[in-house]
Amino acid sequence: VTSAQRPDSAVDPTHDVNLASWVDSANGHPDFPIQNLPFGMFDPGVVADRTGEGTRGGIRIGDLILDLRALHDSGVLTGPAQVGSKAASVSLNGLFALGAGPRKDLREQVSRLLVDGSEHCDTVAAMLFPVRDVTVRLPAMIGDFTDFYAGINHATNVGQLFRPDHPLLPNYKWVPIGYHGRASSIHVSGESFARPMGQIKMPGTDAPVFQASRKLDLELELGIWIGGGNAPGHPILIADAASHIAGYCLLNDWSARDIQSWEYQPLGPFLSKSFHSTISAWVVTPEALAPYRAAMTRPAGDPELLSYLHDPVDQAVGGLDIELEVLLTTASMRAGSMTPQRLSLSSTRHMYWTAAQLVAHHTSGGCDLRPGDLLGSGTISGPTPDSCGSLLEITHDGRDTVLLRSGETRTFLEDGDEVVLRARAHRPGVAPIGFGECLARVLPHHVAHGSA
Ligand code: MN
Predict the structure, then answer these.
(1) Ligand 1 centre and the CA of 268: distance in Å?
(2) pLDDT, tens digit, 9 for 90 and up, residues 327-370
(3) What is the 399 CA–ligand 1 centroid distance (Å)?
(4) Residue 262, CA distances (Å) to 154, 167, 177, 236, 259 in order
(5) Does 154 qualify as catalytic in the annotation?
(6) How far is the CA of 379 from the centre of ligand 1 (A)?
(7) Is residue 238 within 8 Å of residue 312, measured between CB atoms?
(8) Which one of 154, 244, 350, 361 is the catalytic residue?
(9) The pLDDT value given to residue 50
(10) What pLDDT, on a 0 to 100 scale, did the predictor assign at position 448?
């Protein structure tokens, strides 16, 4: 099996480590060099708006965004890229629905437009907006959100807290565990939110009380954007599943552990995970991540995959090798200009299931996925304490504390805390790329809850 057998692992001239852009801020940019070129949605605003039509699709390059509507209207693009830019002028759902062809062609043509020495440099320069001057929106209209549980170390660690003798449930290595989440409360990076209220049953009491969560947690996850969907009743086969993925983002699936532990039986999490979820703004494409594919190594003794989840090519290249990081600042750390403190350094290599397996499983019973649907990987924890993707694991459900460099301690998140997730793919001989920030700040709960 060679990696060339799957399009999303094919390396081409757009990945050349020696490519440089005439956009100066792109060269050496930790997240958005010319080898990345992720998609997003943005509104240039009234003052800066040069075409007067609000939110449109863009491609991030360094500290700037290339306006795909203006690029389409300029007529510089040809063929499938021109079709893709027209769809992206309105929404990324439209671009996602077109599948890999137009997306890949758009990447290739935009790479040639932005590379050093491009003959269209002057034309394209007029279509660039500084990110700091625009409003960045959610990348797509999210129809449905499904959250999986593919981080096996997270599943084991959480299981250990409640079932020390058999932490991993018997189904875990057979079936990708997931639940249907909530799309309306997914927000783009940068939006603060209020600590949730909810029913909480304190240990040693007979009845729950309705109060603000005291166990507010973060979850470090990979988001998976669905591209072309499937008709109801027509499953996406595992060998074809990767071609239905439009890209990836970071996802912080904020969780209120005290609300969760009371409400989750027997139907699973509900309000404890649907008050606010944060995603990073940029859709990093499968094409950009082609150099960072990884083999899946199923540990000896694990059950054989059922055939609908097994594809030799997916096992060879279906994994991803992306470093994931969780950073925290408190209000007093920011007041003292302290740098963010790392809570965790993990990796997508700790996923037990591939993204393609999640797609194949999700549709295996006939469920239809649609362009712009979002899947969450589940919390991705490494095997060590400094690689855990939630405070539940890091502090053992609040039994231990995290000491911050400000002298403060944390078990769970306090008001004013700001969490940033970051992702970085790097490998010798390949241009490193990142995802940008997945950031949000915790505000106090609404005091006058239930009234205006
Ligand atoms: Mn989650």
Answers:
(1) 11
(2) 999 999 999 999 999 999 999 999 999 999 999 999 999 999 99
(3) 21
(4) 20, 20, 20, 36, 6
(5) yes
(6) 6
(7) no
(8) 154
(9) 65
(10) 56
